[in-house]
Amino acid sequence: MQSVREEESSSIDQEPRSCGDNSVWAHVSPLLSAACSDLNECELIHGDNFNLFAAMSALEIMDPKMDSGMVSTFYSIDEAIESGFAPVPISSDRTVDVQCIIDIMDHLLACEATWHMGHSLAQTVFSCIYVLRPERTSSHALLHSFCRVIRATCRALVSVVSDARTNEEEDLFTMTYGLPFNGDEDGKGLLLLNAVEETICRQLRACKATSSKRRVFEARRKANDFVFVVCRMMQNWNLYKLIRNWKRAFAKLCYAGYVFHFLHALNCMRRPQGRGLELARKHIAYCIAELESVLSSVEFLSLETVENGKNEMEESTTGSGRHPIGFDPNLNKRLSAPTPPRAIKLLSWKKVGTSKFSAIDYYVKLLHNLDQICAFKLEPDLDAVLQFVVQFQKSRPDLVARAHLQLLLVQDGKLYGRDTFLTICARSLALDVTKNHGLHLNEYILQLNQLMINLLKILCANTPWQRRKLGKILNDWSIFNVQMGITVGHMMQQVTTPRTPKNGDKSALILNHIYGWLEEQIHWVALRFLVLGFDLKLYSPSEYCMVYWYMYIILWKLAEKAHFRVLIIVHTEEQKAKKKEDYSRDMAREDRISLWVLLLKCQTSLAQGLTVMIAALRNEGMCLKSQGPFNTENEKFVQHFGLLQKASLPKYDAYESFSESTCHARLDYLPVYECFRDAQKMAKEIKVGYANDPDKLAEVVGLEQVAEHNIIAVNLLCQDRCLKVSFEFIHHPHFATAVVRRS
């Protein structure tokens, strides 16, 4: 088969040439040109076995967007270097040299932020020749150390995401395309960058101490030319007063301090068992302060007016608005084969005008998300872990933050790398398993350990993948629950026999309690699956009735199982207190779980009230039914909840039960008021318990407002059936508020 490559006509050998492996390369451009002249529009040359499926995967030869072999500005990195595309030094003029270096660093961080968003590493960060060949910049300490630290940062991030496997199938984040990516010498960049930072600090302090133009020019002989260039760049000596300390001046000059501490923060967060989180927070705090200083220096960085005005500034990847030197996004596009190179639009340096998102915005959000992870108290409490992960996901963290969270939670098959999930589960039930060493080797405990690991990993995925994976693992949990229930049932029957050893009694009782706890976790996963549908906007208003009915069923069962766990804990604590007079009960844990149960009951009442309310509106013709030209209500029910029904949640015919329970609902039906009033009453009690938890308090206040407004809406609708009603998520993201309007 002949290979095709479009090259410069002057460099093409017209004669066939051998490659040494019995293959012959021939120039086929004349043949293709002749064929094109005979082809009409929408026609193509194909073999006998070519079909429509193959056409979907075909590449158009000599199309720059499809053919990665097309020669762009430069054929290779060496050719670009020889042509002077990335000179070192950049300019003989110190002022221009400093300006260009700042632009390069601005653009590099914009490329890195774009790479984090899922684009190709070869067409973003490694589109910079200075990063591809950092040894060329060894004579320039700042640029050399900066490029090395950028390479080390990219390697650290790829390692984190690869280990966590939070990237999706179509994500290009972990693909390095054979780039010069590895190398221990890049770690020296931190030492070099630290030395550069100290040098600049000394020079800026000397510059600050100079109080007149004359003394500044005299300091030029003693200080590095780099600092003197800064004074020249300002041109207006009044701006000199804006530089109050070396930190702000350093932030205005470059991002060197930011990348230095960012890489340190990443390394600290990878330390086992969360030992480096406190130190990582310090580095993250410095990074945030550095970015804030950079944002305040926009006028300083934009010394020259952009010729095309504001519109070009909005699309610029540098603070000055100038185009950086040494970047070619098509330089490595051949490395992305067999896929065609993507058209990449880099994030702008700063949010200006109509731009929606910028590189600075991304880094600020990323740093705050990493700070949230570092601030999390590593308590061996599964309830606290699940609550933190759910709350963390509300900010829609990106891939890098989610990968760090997963690696923190799951290490060596243990929570935080310290506690087995048997220990965590037993602690949730106030049980002591230290003397039951055989339980750690129990096959059901080992399976439960793996299920919990998979659950935590799934909860760290992005929202669409999280919901899809949760729906699939529900079946695994259900099968495991059935198998464990049969075994535990037999064990509990044997406990009643007098020949059963005492240790066997304890193991059976512990497994029995864990079996009940397992059912609670299954319903928690099912509830998470349902509420994520609201976040992804998968439900239409005509389907809210069936959704809230299903939420009511799951919430009611979840509250029942959680309440049963409270009873187990209270009973266990009382038994321990009887055996040891000096034993102190963990009242805080009991109160926390009891408050959680009350919150579940509040949500249960709200879901029940919304179900009856929407069903009554449908029955009285005031709200659209879930009917369409293609799907019946039963088919939509199966589409939304088929995975739950497969996992036997609930264990009876769900759609039949839903139809029977909603077909006779009316607005004047008394339970509609009672459900909302019960929810409102419980919300007021819960607010007292969550007074010190701002996130939970805000959620409870939202539930209370939903109940209050829905009571008013029901009253208005009972008085005037001609009013129009719609459901909007004003006060809570998952529980709708009825909005009543006149026709």
From TrEMBL:
InterPro entries: NAA35-like_N (IPR057983), Naa35_N (IPR007244), TPR_NAA35 (IPR057982). GO terms for cellular component: NatC complex. It holds the Pfam family Mak10. Keywords: Cytoplasm. The keyword Repressor does not apply. Residues 1-18 have a biased composition (Basic and acidic residues). Residues 43-181 form the NAA35-like N-terminal domain. Residues 373-738 form the NAA35-like TPR repeats domain. Residues 1-20 are annotated as: Disordered. Belongs to the MAK10 family. This is N-alpha-acetyltransferase 35, NatC auxiliary subunit. It comes from Brassica cretica (Mustard).
